[in-house]
Amino acid sequence: MIGGSRRSGDLEVVDVRDAAGGGSVSVMTPAPDDPTGEIQVITDDRPRLPGRLAPRRRPGIRGRLGTILVAWAAVLLGFILFVGFLSAFPESRAQAGLQRHLATVLANAQAPIGGSIRMGSPVARLDIPAIGLHQIVVEGTSADQLRKGPGHLPVSPMPGQAGNSVIAAHALLFGGPFGSIGSLRPGDAIQVLTGEGPATYRVTGHRTVPSRSAQPFEATPDNQLTLVTAANLWASSRLVVTARLVGAPQAAPAGRPTVLAASQGVSAGGGGAGLALGLFLGVFLVVAGLTVVAYRRLPRWSSYIITTPILLASLWLLYSTLGRFLPATI
Q1: 156 and 181 co-located in one domain
Q2: Whole-angstrom Cα distance, residue 62 to residue 58?
Q3: Contact 183, 203 (CB under 8 A)
Q4: 3-state class (DSSP) for residue 25
Q5: Same domain, 40 and 116
Q6: Minimum mean pLDDT among 12-26, 122-136, 287-301: which range?
Q7: Rounded-to-10 torsion of CA 99, 100, 103, 106
Q8: Is 160 exposed, middle or buried (0-12, 13-18, 19+ CB in 10 A)?
Q9: What is the pLDDT of residues 67-82, one digit of tens each?
């Protein structure tokens, strides 16, 4: 508060204003036509000066605790929103790039068809007209590969070749490419295009198996395609769709891997992401702390404009890393 008094002749002026210029000015003067000399008080309220803000009150312990709880609830709600909706955007962008890459290597007859294939490379185009699925399949089934789209199990034959070719994908996260495969019916067509040409499969059925069961990935006497995804949000079981190859299988070059790396397990999640999670969590906490300081020191709208983009970017990095710790096919 800014206050003071001064006398001017028979008048005494009492000025009481705050730091923003608001408040009142009182003038004490003898009442007119009153021989008793009683004092008359005239008060003039003054508005705050434009562009000046009153100091913000600092909340008490309860207020701060409530703010922290609300903030963490907002962070959790944001992660749920990311899992259900926003994670589809990076998958869609990755698919666009993979589609261009696969089209180029197919046109140049350089698409991988066997042997040792670099993880993350596009190896096939998968089309299931019955559910409107059109996706590029990458080599590998780790959490990192499945963020880009469906992944081919490295120790299984390539699609179109003899044996049990296995493809896994998310049911919900990162666009949920296999979210609708449970609605496929016997006889529905599944079309695959690889460097060896097109291949057609016909769905034979689907079933649910425990998440620890290795049966969907085992070799089979039939030439089939096996699609695998999570059957529920807890990934305690897997949804498996099988389809039989129509016609003769394509040739299978030698040199395919026979041992599956731990990171390529279809249920695995978070491989190698611990350091990144610690880093991005630290970045988010620092940004959140600086945001609080900005809200206290800067005008409200200025602090919003400066801090909001940085805060959202740090949250995106944190959410993307946390998503890697979820089971790979959710």
Answers
A1: yes
A2: 11
A3: no
A4: strand
A5: no
A6: 12-26
A7: -100
A8: buried
A9: 788 888 988 899 888 8
Which among 213, 225, 230, 91 is positioned nearest to 169, based on CA atoms?
A: 230
Q: For residue 56, tell me if it sits in a domain.
A: no
Cα-to-chain-centroid distance, residue 298: 30
Domain region containing 97: 87-262
The confidence score (pLDDT) of residue 59 equals 65
The label of the residue with tokens 């890459």 reads 101
Higher pLDDT pick, 18 / 132: 132
Helix (H, G, I), strand (E, B) or coil at 96: helix
Across the range 219-243, mean pLDDT stands at 93
For residue 53, is it within any domain? no
Whether residues 155 and 24 fall in one domain: no
pLDDT for position 41: 47
Q: How far lies 204's CA from each of 35, 80, 151, 171, 222, in Å? A: 111, 35, 21, 20, 12
Same domain, 66 and 93: no
Strands 133-139 and 151-152: parallel
283 to 121, 277, 278, 312, 315: CA distances (angstroms)? 31, 10, 9, 12, 9
